[in-house]
Specification:
single chain; about 80 residues; Mth169, Chain: A; elongated
């Protein structure tokens, strides 16, 4: 079966987010009433797997091995069957 999986990688609390800080500052200068912006990455992955659980397991492994840095990143995974 084919699955579409979204893996969002974001910084753990307490880690510096220079891109988010710069964006927050710039939007405040443009007079938008923002308090804080955090930047994250979203990976959209289409893969073949035996089941929804298998797809989630595979993407979890991808995050642990390559997509996320376990020292500084958190990640969430959302799985949908496409066909």
């Amino acid at each position: 079966m084919l699955y579409k999986v979204r893996a969002e990688i974001s910084l753990k609390p307490g880690h510096s987010d220079p891109e988010g800080e710069t964006t927050t500052r710039s939007l405040k200068e443009l007079t938008y009433p923002v308090r804080n912006i955090g930047v994250s990455k979203m990976y959209t992955i289409t893969l073949e797997a035996k089941s929804r659980s298998d797809a989630e397991t595979k993407v979890d492994e991808m995050c642990k091995r390559l997509l996320a840095n376990p020292t500084k990143d958190n990640y969430t995974i959302q799985v949908e069957q496409t066909q």
